[in-house]
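Extended Data, panel c. Modelled sequence:
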Amino acid sequence: MGIVKIRAPPGWQPSTQDPAQLYNPSNITVKITSPLQQTIKPTPTRGAFESTSEVMPELSVENFVKLATSQRLVTPAHESYDHLEELYWSYDKIDTADDPIYGADVQSSLIDDDRKIWNVSKGEYGQLFNDLGQRLTRVNEGAYLYFGMWKTTFSWHIEDMDLYGINYLHYGAPKSWYCVPPSQAYRLERYADTLFPNWAKICKNFLRHKVCMMSPHLLRSKGITVNKVVQEERDLIVVFPHAYHAGFNHGFNIAEASNFGTPDWVEHGKRHRTCMCSDSDKVIMLDMEPFVTKYQPDRLDAWKAGKDEALHPDDPEELEDVWRMCKQVVDCEGEEDLPQKLRERLTVTTEDSEEQEEVSEKIRKLKSLCKKQLNHFKMFREVLVGLKEIVDIVEVDDWNDVNGTIKEKEQECTPLSLSDSDLRKVKAKALKSKVKVRVKKSKKADIKIYLDKLPTQPSVKKTAKSDAAKQNIVTKLGFADITEEELLAKKNMKKCYYKHKFWNCKKCTYCLKPDCGRCWACKDKPKFGGPGVQKQKCQERKCSNPMVRGCDKCTWNVDYIKSTL
């Protein structure tokens, strides 16, 4: 499964303080120093989104609640959790919705020290495992608080050092969680590489950066198992090592999260693959030697010497075959020790000395390539290109075998020898032979009587108010038609000494369109043969959701936010 939900017992409370006082926003003195404005940008593949964030001005928890419940950011009306999930993944409101604000990674805790739920044991395990959250978060509380609002998202990722993750929902609206079992983590990584090739070039393990969101429907269409859990108040969510998870908040809530380990995690911690891009210096690493000393004493000497080599516990079988083959090639002393298939490919049955030297050179190069592959496996879950050609490994990108068999059956049943017209005639004859009910055609008079009985729609006269609304539409050169009230509402969300201009949202349907090459603006561009004098954007790429630029001196306009509650 990779994820479990645990309901806290009725008698357990995270604090001795009264919950009404503990969760009162006015009583929470901690500040959200770096709230994140999240932008979920669609990609050409429906159901796949890029997630980026920008740090916004500091917020108190009380003001964050006012922002989360304001008219522009409040949770929309819905009938059920499933209905709200449909609204989250819907493309209908992307062009007009405001970007939500997430109060993530706030260094504090609302759970008393003697009630820390991630202290897995007060006995022999406690000395090693209970302070992992403190060491990873670098704060005394050993946990982070998360203040969410509608549509705030935690994109697909796994925990640092492949540890267990635990999340307790203190108060507020639920969270929806998606989780891929650890045994299928490689499938998610491989499919994400095809969906986000630009990110894959920047960082091989880019999913650790929480930069992409993929719908469960899209993943399931490729044969990837996705489990869904809805977390409500007083629910604990435990995510297992190397289980990719993602989700979103239904509205304003307060949650607390940390990490912990168990003896079963030690092998995951030894084999975890960290980020290797420019942000790798920010990654927190744990010294695994104390854990190996305690739980794997027979492998301690090999670990210290750097000879304790193995694949990650959740690597697929196809990589295990490559790893075993490489170990066998590296450890072999002569041609006779090579695997049978490799020997048949490399050896040539001839007495020519030059060709025999060529075979020995191939074996030497193969050994060198296998050594590189073994080192490569320590950081990346992929086979080197040179080795792929030798072992004929085929990496699968679609694991939906059931859909494949259905398609093959449909192709087999289709009468290819018949034309489309003949096929329609065959289907019509089959229907006539099976259906014996005769339907009498309706007369025009009967239809007219039926239509006369239907209630007529009252005619709506154009009022002066509707005419005034049309007159309030502001036409700007770089933006689609938008009302003056909408522009003022966007401006009034923040206040600043400087007057900031509007900027393209870069996520709406029109922003993502390519240049048409037909309008006057495109014909002026040099790439379409124009002189490049006007220097204006394509008229079919006018942004429908302009955003106000910001700076370090911007602050939230709390008075205006209060008026929209």
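The first strand starts at residue 3 and ends at 7. This feature is highlighted in the accompanying rendering.
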